[in-house]
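ugh ok fine here u go
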Amino acid sequence: MDPRWARAEASEVSMIPPETVHALAQLSGLVLAEPELPAALARITRIAVEVVEPCEGASLTMRRAGLPDTPAASDDWARALDEMQYVEQEGPCLDCMRTGHLIRVRDLATDVRFGYYGPRAAATGARTVISLPLTADGTTVGALNLYSRTPDAYGPEHVALGELIVAHASLAVQAATAFYSCQELAGQLREALASRAVIEQAKGVLMTQLGLDAEAAFEALRTQSQDRNRKLREIAAEVVERVSRTGAG
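structure:
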């Protein structure tokens, strides 16, 4: 990076107003503030529009099953600008994800790098875009895209802010992914424990009613599960429920 550019960025960032600092700080607590990962990602795009003043639409491009996808956007306009790139197979967000470098387009209407996408995007009102790499564990996993309807809308201070946002966003995405993965794992564990409990109850019922040992009781449940093409837990729950109704009667 040119030292003069670095000095300009440092100077501009040092003058960040308190409301911007507050908005950036929200990214740190994003995992606790939003109950689901899609909501957390959407919040990142809204903060980007709030913090980078020329930005009129923001989106996150990531990969789903190996294909580019937009899991979150501040509005339908930004989402459509992303999806247009996927159709044309060219655009700043795709280049950003592929190279891991910031891609800056001063005017989509005239930028020769995107001869198909640029004019189509400009026709929807988009003129300037910055795509910043979103990283996790040192790997580029996506791009944060900042769209504006004004040509050459972003100065060094806006780029610096964008880099601050994407740095916070990268941490938030990593933390959120780990957090929600742990939540999913915990849910799976709870379900497994609940299944085991009801199966043990059903085994006890069959052992009492039919005089079976534990192994034979389990085999009887498994045979019903296979014959009826039902989950073992469902068969066990029916056995327990049937006994409960009989006892209540």
